[in-house]
Amino acid sequence: MDKYSKIEKYVVASDVGSRDGIGIEIYSGDSMLLEVFRDDTKKTREVSLYKNELDLELVEEAIALFKKEIPWEFQE
Fold first, then answer.
1. Strand spans (E) along the chain
2. Highest taxon of the source (predicted)?
3. Where do runs of H (alpha helix) occur along 2-74?
4. What are the two backbone dihedrals, phi and then psi, of residue 19, each rounded to the nearest 5 degrees?
């Protein structure tokens, strides 16, 4: 994972409860730092930060990883 050297751990996760879509969650240890999510209901792609003052390179790597791992097209 040299290309994503700032990312310690990530999980690809889907959500069909309050939201309907799929995304990646970025972790440091057991703490989630941020999530990049494709919401198929709202037809949006969103970044949620769970820690203040995240390293810009980490955020950029997370977005690049999202684009690699998650299909871009919305699902019906």
1. 9-15, 21-28, 31-39, 44-49
2. Bacteria
3. 56-69
4. -125, 165
Cβ–Cβ < 8 Å for 22, 38: yes
The answer for residues whose C-beta is within 8 angstroms of residue 76's C-beta and 6 or more apart is 40
Structure confidence at residue 1 (pLDDT): 47
- Say how far apart CA 48 and CA 19 lie, in whole Å: 14
The residue with tokens 């037809």 is 43
Torsion of CA 45, 47, 21, 29, to 10 degrees: 150
The pTM of the full predicted model, rounded to 2 decimals, is: 0.89
First to last CA, the chain: 32
Cβ distance 46 to 39 under 8 Å? Answer: yes
Mean pLDDT by 10 residues, the chain (76 residues): 82 89 96 96 96 95 97 94
